[in-house]
Amino acid sequence: MNVLIVYGTTEGQTRKIAERVAKDVSDRGHSVEVHDAGESDAHVDLNAFQAVVVAGSVHQEQHQKAIKNFATAHSEQLNARPSAFISVSFSAALDDTRPEAQRYVDQFVELTGWQPRMTLLLGGAVRFTEYDYFQEQVVKFIVMKRGLAADDGGDREFTDWDALDGFVDAFLKGAAG
Fold this sequence. Notes:
This protein is an alpha/beta fold.
């Protein structure tokens, strides 16, 4: 199977996730291409692919504009083949805020017209070393309020890699069947 992975990232964690999906797909004997939706040369012919995985992160309660534009522009083609959506957010990492993370996905689906066959809510990361002062203070407040700050106050990853691997396995089995 030829699988396309399209991602949108703000701080790099969703790119890391997309690369992990690509490795998992390739390790299972499938061809794979990875495209950053934010790149100007991101135009791709979906007809060349039997399955598509789209990954986007949430910031300020919205997925990236590039991912929304991609899904909207290609909704018919995405709906016509096995497709999956991975929504990456801090909200997805916490049990008490997972309904909020699901709401972001529901809004995305309603806005774009794309009905992915599978979705995964996946925790992202906090990258204090890459934030400006204001961003750092806001994120530190949220993270510390929940008791999730790293011991050294540095960057912290919340991605459940095992859940991602299981999701890829289930998606590929469903797409091949």
